[in-house]
């Protein structure tokens, strides 16, 4: 009996121990589940530099593009990309047969228009003026003869040797001859009206403009360097046919280049003339060029799927390695504060436009409003609301939202 009692007692002891272990396990598990694990960082002073990066394209400050003045073929090319040429050097020649034909036609047109103006302003051609003078002389002779006949008949009528009807007929012939003389004189002096003279002068001006255009086209078939520079693009070769307006070659002084950068519309307000720029080109890894903003946008444009503003960047250390039309990355420093109170951007929250943080106090979180300053990609400056050494939560390890008045465990 005693032995049986001892066995029963041991069973109760083991049962009690098991119950205690289960209770301890459940208590520990319950406490662990209720403590929210959060990541936190300490508020500190540090340098805060704000930058904005975008793409851009290198271009010469002054670029010379040579286009074909007419549809023709290339006769000869005397340069190749990379050649440095002086001003006036012959670069390319085009077939000028058509240009010379147009020039001859234009010259003929000018001469015809000049003859027309001379005729209009001198009352006709020489032949017309001679014919008009002969007409006037003939009409004057007829008028003088009619006057003599009339005078003779008047005298005869006075003696009764001529009738009144003969005198009247002579008067009519005199009047007719006088009128014919007047018409001939008027025609010889003002053959062309003022509007006809103006029309002839306008036709001459038009012909002279056509001649000037033809002369320019003919001159442009021999292409010379408009200025000293480097040939960086030759688009057509010898014997190739080119359309009118086709780009033939490009020349520029590569010691004076700039970058046309494309900043998204929301970033334009942060830009200002003089802000420093860093330029990088994938073709030269590890190398960078310095520059500054020379001109800020005055409007926005559509660039692919983006709405951007064009910014002109002056390159301060041009060395000739950046080639025109290459795509580069530009990074502008919009602000640089050497010693500001800052926190990571993920520690800052917004509600109804008001910023706040979750301040770690003991084993709990306290929602604390703050006043923020400038920001960059990773940090945000705090003007008021926090002190150096404070700890703020940046998030939970489980992805759950941060909450106040919940026991937490800080994971650093």
Secondary-structure map with pairings?
Layout: H1 2-34, E1 36-42, E2 44-60, E3 63-67, E4 72-77, E5 84-85, E6 90-94, H2 97-121, H3 126-159, H4 164-189, H5 194-220, E7 222-224, E8 229-234, E9 241-242, E10 247-252, E11 257-264, E12 276-280, E13 288-295, E14 301-303, E15 306-315, E16 327-344, E17 349-351, E18 354-361, E19 364-369, E20 371-375, E21 379-384, E22 391-396, E23 408-411
Parallel strand pairs: 1-23
Antiparallel strand pairs: 1-22, 2-11, 2-16, 3-10, 4-6, 4-9, 5-8, 6-7, 8-10, 11-15, 12-13, 12-16, 13-15, 14-15, 16-21, 17-18, 18-19, 20-21
Helix pairs in contact: 2-5, 3-4
Structure commentary:
This protein is of the alpha+beta class and 412 residues long. Among the domains are: 37-48 and 339-411, conserved putative lor/sdh protein from methanococcus maripaludis s2 fold; 63-95 and 221-251, OB fold (Dihydrolipoamide Acetyltransferase, E2P) (Beta Barrel); 106-214. Helix content is 35%, strand content 36%. It is built from five helices and 23 strands. The chain has helices at 2-34, 97-121, 126-159, 164-189, 194-220; strands at 36-42, 44-60, 63-67, 72-77, 84-85, 90-94, 222-224, 229-234, 241-242, 247-252, 257-264, 276-280, 288-295, 301-303, 306-315, 327-344, 349-351, 354-361, 364-369, 371-375, 379-384, 391-396, 408-411. The chain has a six-stranded antiparallel barrel with strand order 2-11-15-13-12-16. Helix 2 packs antiparallel against helix 5 (194-220) and helix 3 packs antiparallel against helix 4 (164-189). The longest helix has 34 residues, at 126-159. The chain is elongated and about 190 Å long.
């Amino acid at each position: 009996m005693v032995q049986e009692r001892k066995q029963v007692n041991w069973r109760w002891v083991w049962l009690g121990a098991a119950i205690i272990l289960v209770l301890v396990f459940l208590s520990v598990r319950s406490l662990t589940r209720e403590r929210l694990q959060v990541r936190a960082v300490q508020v500190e002073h540090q340098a805060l530099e704000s930058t904005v990066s975008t793409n851009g394209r290198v271009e010469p400050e002054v670029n010379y593009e040579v286009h074909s003045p007419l549809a023709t073929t290339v006769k000869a090319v005397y340069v190749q990309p990379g050649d440095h040429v002086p001003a006036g050097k012959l670069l390319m020649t085009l077939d000028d047969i058509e240009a010379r034909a147009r020039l001859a036609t234009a010259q003929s047109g000018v001469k015809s228009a000049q003859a027309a103006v001379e005729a209009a302003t001198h009352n006709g051609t020489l032949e017309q003026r001679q014919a008009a003078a002969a007409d006037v002389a003939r009409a004057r002779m007829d008028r003088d003869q009619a006057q003599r006949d009339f005078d003779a008949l008047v005298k005869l009528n006075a003696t009764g040797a001529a009738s009144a009807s003969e005198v009247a007929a002579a008067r009519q012939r005199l009047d007719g001859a006088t009128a014919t003389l007047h018409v001939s004189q008027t025609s010889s002096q003002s053959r062309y009206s003022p509007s006809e003279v103006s029309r002839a002068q306008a036709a001459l001006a038009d012909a002279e403009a056509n001649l000037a255009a033809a002369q320019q086209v003919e001159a442009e078939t021999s292409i010379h360097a408009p200025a000293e520079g480097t040939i960086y693009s030759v688009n057509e070769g010898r014997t190739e046919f080119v359309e009118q307006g086709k780009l033939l070659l490009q020349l520029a002084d590569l010691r004076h280049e700039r970058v046309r950068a494309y900043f998204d519309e929301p970033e334009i307000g942060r830009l200002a003339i003089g802000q420093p720029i860093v330029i990088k080109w994938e073709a030269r890894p590890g190398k960078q060029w310095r520059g500054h903003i020379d001109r800020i946008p005055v409007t926005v444009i559509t660039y692919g799927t983006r709405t951007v503003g064009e910014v002109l960047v002056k390159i301060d250390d041009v060395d000739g390695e950046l080639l025109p039309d290459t795509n580069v990355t530009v990074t502008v420093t919009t602000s640089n504060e050497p010693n500001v109170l800052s926190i990571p951007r993920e520690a800052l929250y917004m509600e109804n436009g008001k910023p706040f943080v979750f301040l770690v106090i003991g084993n709990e979180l306290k929602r604390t409003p703050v006043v923020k300053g400038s920001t960059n990609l990773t940090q945000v400056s705090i003007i008021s609301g926090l002190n150096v050494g404070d700890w703020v939560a940046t998030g939970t390890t489980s992805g759950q939202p941060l909450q106040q008045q919940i026991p937490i465990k800080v994971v650093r």
